[in-house]
Amino acid sequence: MISTRKDARDAKLTTYFTGKPCKRGHDAPRYVNSGNCVVCNKLSNQSYYKPLEPKTVRIKITIPHKHIRAIKALAAAFCALEKPTP
Ligand SMILES: [Zn+2]
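# zinc ion complex -> structure
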């Protein structure tokens, strides 16, 4: 196994292995082009591409007074559908 970055570059390899752990303690090969640990790089990519958590947002809307009665009637009708009285 190639142990220095220069040797790996000369041999046209993409990774090399020093035998020393990275700053986060991974005993893993490093990339020739960046010197970054392969495991650190993978973990970094995973966190970057992780899908966003769904968020609860609070919005403020203003309802014209003339519509409030109709909305209340719709809400009451909806509640009646969801919870039928026994
Ligand atoms: Zn690492």
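# post-check
Helices lie at 5-10, 38-49, 65-82.
The longest strand covers residues 15-16.
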